[in-house]
Amino acid sequence: GEPSIVDGKCIGCAKCVKVCAAGALEMFYTPEELELLKQWEAQHGAVEEELDPAEKELRAKLAQYRGVWVFIEQYQGEAAKVSWELLGVGKELAATLGVKLSALIIGHEVAHLCEEAFAYGADQAVVLDESVFKDYRTKPFTDAVCHLVEKHKPEVILMGATGQGRDLAGAVATIVKTGLTADCTGLGIDDKRNLMQTRPAFGGNIMATIMCDRFRPQMATVRPHVMAMPERKDGSKGVVILEQFYLREQDILAKVIETISDKGGADIDIAGAEIIVSGGRGLMNKDNFALLHELAVELGGVVGASRSAVDAGWMPHSRQVGQTGKTVRPKIYIACGISGAIQHLVGMQDSDVVIAINRDAEAPIFQVATYGIVGDLFQVLPALTRRVREMKG
Ligand code: FAD
After folding, report:
1. Residue among 306, 321, 316 at smallest CA distance from 262
2. Residue 339 Cα: closest atom of ligand 1
3. Separation of alpha carbons 140 and 144, rounded Å
């Protein structure tokens, strides 16, 4: 039916307009009301919001928090690319807010990362360089970040939605008692300096914009490859803020004894690949993935998979593309025998070129495909591989 306003409840603040995820609400004033509003403002000045003392106190507290921080995730002194991607979006947020962008660097012998952070846009680097931070461990990193947050009071903290980032962000948010939005796909600032954190919700069927307007810092994680890599400007200068946080090794219960890399396919980073040949349930069995490997080898790409293929045990989870797998942004994504469920699409729809091979012309994958081949993959794939081989001579 016709929407109606509950008299005495609606104060015309228009907050509902901003928070409606579907953008379904609008605020209308009749020409007469607009005229009255103008006259009133001409006499009294713009309407000042009346605040109760608790609200005033809250706003004063929030106002103490300034600046955008990006946690620079590193492994043995090498930064994760997602951290630089976050500096790119962080720079835009900081510019809108009119504040500095800081890189938060925690580790051992990590001074060189400051230069890199400045090259990717950071104005300053907040650094903790001590031997207890050589390997990532939840407790010491959490304690250190919480200490620095309390000291510097940043208003926004961004971290990569990686194993480390997810672990650390959740632990820090719990202790500093603030909100955290995981796996954001879009970040912006509203007219009240709040971070607008957009992410897919309800299985990817709607995009929700989440706000944390009563707590600081506002924390968000973003998956690798969701944000574009900023341009690197070597030689950029910034301010290094060298911090100290006293922790004794003997007080830390978790010890890193050995690091073993997963050779079961996890060593191949599909998230960073330029060409991905992905297979789904249409491949029928594990052995048939050899067809994808052959084409991938010819193209210099890697093999990915849908969740159905992973659940069937045909490929390891590290190769899964989608909402509960990896987000990829290759130059070419070839989807073979994949129907194109929304949970798969959210992980690959930003690829430059999508080529879909499916025998069902109605499959949703064709809606995001640059080129669609309706046909039997067992005929199309070998033909495609043959043709690529011929072209390479
Ligand atoms: P199907 O949907 O069964 O499609 C198989 C396709 O192969 C069909 O379109 C068929 O026409 C085609 N085909 C069959 N034989 C041939 C042939 N010989 N030649 C050509 N085409 C052929 N899915 C993901 O992929 N990644 C995720 O991260 C993910 N996360 C999820 C999270 C949640 C919370 C939920 C509920 C689901 C998630 N899913 C995810 C599952 C998703 O909903 C789909 O079930 C899944 O993507 C389907 O995989 P598929 O396309 O391989 O299989």
Report:
1. 316
2. 9
3. 6
Determine if ligand 1 sits within 6 Å of the CB of residue 359.
Answer: yes
Q: How confident is the model at residue 3 (pLDDT cuts 50, 70, 90)?
A: low
| Pair of tokens at residue 24 | 């379904």
Q: How far apart are alpha carbons 381 and 253 in whole angstroms?
A: 52
Residue pLDDT, tens place only, 84-143: 999 999 999 999 999 999 999 999 999 999 999 999 999 999 999 999 999 999 999 999
Choosing from 342, 343, 345, 381 the residue with most ligand 1 atoms within 8 A of its CB, the one to mutate for a pocket test is 343
DSSP symbols for 172-218? HHHHHT--EEEEESEEEE-TTS-EEEEEEETTTTEEEEE--TTSSSE
Instruction: Give the global pTM.
Output: 0.68
Paired strand residues for 355: 334, 371
Is 356 close to ligand 1, i.e. is its CB under 6 Å away?
Answer: no
Cα-Cα end-to-end distance for the chain: 67
Kindly give the distance from the C-alpha atom of residue 287 to the centroid of ligand 1, in angstroms, as a whole number. Answer: 18
